[in-house]
Structure formats: structure tokens, C-alpha cells
Amino acid sequence: MKRCPACTRVYDGDHLRFCLDDGTELVDKTPEASAPPTAILPSSAGNHTPTITAPPPVVAAATDERSQLGARPAAKKRSAWPWILGAGALLLILGAAIVVSALFLFPKPPLVWHLVLEIDPSTQNREAVLKQSVAIIESRLNALGVRNFEVKPQGNLADGRIVINLPSVADPERVKQVIVSQGKLELVHVLSPPSPAPPQTFPSKEEASASFASSGELPLNRRILANRERSEPSDPVSNWVVVESPAIVDGSDLRDAQAVRESFGDNYQINFSLKKTGAAKFGAWTGANINEYLGVVLNDEVRSIAFIKSQIYDQGQISGRFTRQSAEDLALVLKSGALPAAVKLVEERVNK
Fold this sequence. Notes:
Distance between the termini: 139 Å
Structural class: alpha+beta
CATH architecture of the largest domain: 2-Layer Sandwich
CATH class of the largest domain: Alpha Beta
Number of domains: 3
Shape: elongated
CATH topology of the largest domain: Gyrase A, domain 2
Strand content: 15-25%
């Protein structure tokens, strides 16, 4: 048995030579030797320097740093308004730049073509009719894509004259036709024996009038119209029909009109739809008049006649050997609205 003379630790094995705690050489332990006094650590650290020191607490260090540098103020929340205002200003600048560029790159063409229209002298309240006609003609020119134009009354409003100043266009005849077309659409009851009998027509206007005039005069609720159902616009009128007045619905009830190709052949037709009020009137009439004949009237001429198979509400079509351009022009005229009175071209001049 061995003992460490420094720390008094006792080891049972005799094979050890040095203390495992402090490395002191061991001595043999004698039974009679008394245990050495317990070692007492000094109460004061004195010049003793510890081998390992604990690191300073993190919280304390952070606290010390704040105490030295001062607490940092909380970050201010930035407002989004400067960015919004800046973006708006940038868009305005870009928009102005685009407009200015367009004016320089695509200047308005000069007005070199001048037309003067006159409203039918028999029209009542010509001043109001003239103002309405100006607005409708402007709408038609916009729909045609004319880039620059002027439409305004000429002289006294009571004279019923409209001056139209236009640039040079590729197809002036087409533009004139769209401008002066009255665009008056009506769906009317054609007076005739019901289907399956064919619609009743007359070879002349006089014969049509005589068949319905009991006292030599046509009743106020009747009208005699040219029937151009199967003829070209340039062909002479070959037959006439008698219709009820007023119309079931008219162009004021129109919601939309589109030119579409017919199922067979190269001709086009105009499909149209009615507004809610017009559809209600049309549905009530067609529901009560099955097998009666309905006429589609355009500018006081019958363009198609068909018998009512079942109740119809808001759809219809105008057929009549239309070319694609004439159908598209007619749809454009119908959508822009009918002129409140007939107009005629009284003057045309082109700058040299």
C-alpha cells in the first residue's frame, strides 16, 4: 500500500510510483504513521491567478455596450405615400411624353374635304333635330376610324344645315353613304292573310292604297312601303306592301347589330338584338300573333318578310343580298343610331 505525502491519497496497488492527482512520488504507507493534517486553502487569493476564468455573461456585456453607446431609437415606419405620389407623377410624365410624341409622329391630317348637308325642310323643330344629327354623324365618323374631322351647324340653326370638314379618305363614296344614311330600323306587322298563305303584295302603290282605303284615303294606322325583299337597292320597285303603324319596335330599342355571313352563298346579313324594353314589347306581340307576317323595315323600305313560327324576344336578322362591306356599314349605322330626319347632300368641295 502506498501514500502520497503531499495530498495523503492512499493507493492500494504497489505498482504505482507517482500520485495521479499532483504527480508526487508515492511512499510506502506504514500502519503506525498517523494521518497528516487536512490541507486548508488560503482564505485570500493574494497573488494567486486562476488558471481558467469564466467568460463574462452575454447579457451583462450587451447591457454594458448599451450603457456606453446609449439605447438605439426604434426605426421609424416609412410612409408609402411618397412612393405612390412619385409613381403617379412618373405615369403623368410618361403619358404626356407619349401624347407629344404622337402629335409629332402622327400629326392630324389636314381638313381638305368639305360637305354641307341639309335637313328635310318639312321637319318640325329643326334646331333640336340638327343638334341630334350632329352628334350621330360624329359617332358614325368615329366608328369609321376617321382620325380628324369637324361636324357643326352652318349659319342659323333654324336653317337646318350641317357642315362637315374631313381629311382625304380612301373611299369617299362609302363615307358619304354612311353619313347620309338615315339608319331607321323598324319591325312592323305586314297586313296579309296569315301563313301558309303567301304575304300579300301589290304591283303598284295605288292598288295597295285602294285595297285598304274605304273612303279614298288610307287610314292613319296604315302605311304603304316598297318591298325590296329580293331586289338590289338600284333596282326599280316591283311590288308594295301595307303595314300597320306605329311599328312594334324601332331602332331606339336596338342593343347591338353585327354583320355575319349567311349559311349558304356569299351574301351577308345583319343579326341584331334588342334592349330589355324592346324585347318585352316584341315578345308580347310575337306571342299573340303566331303565323302573322313580320316585316323588317330599313329607311322606310321592307327588306325582309317572315311569318311568326313561335314567340320571339330579343333576336332578329335583316337579310337582303348584302355584301360584306354594305352589311358592316349598315350594322355601324344601326348601332350609332338613326338620324332623326332625312338629310341630303347640297354641297361638296375639295381644297386644291
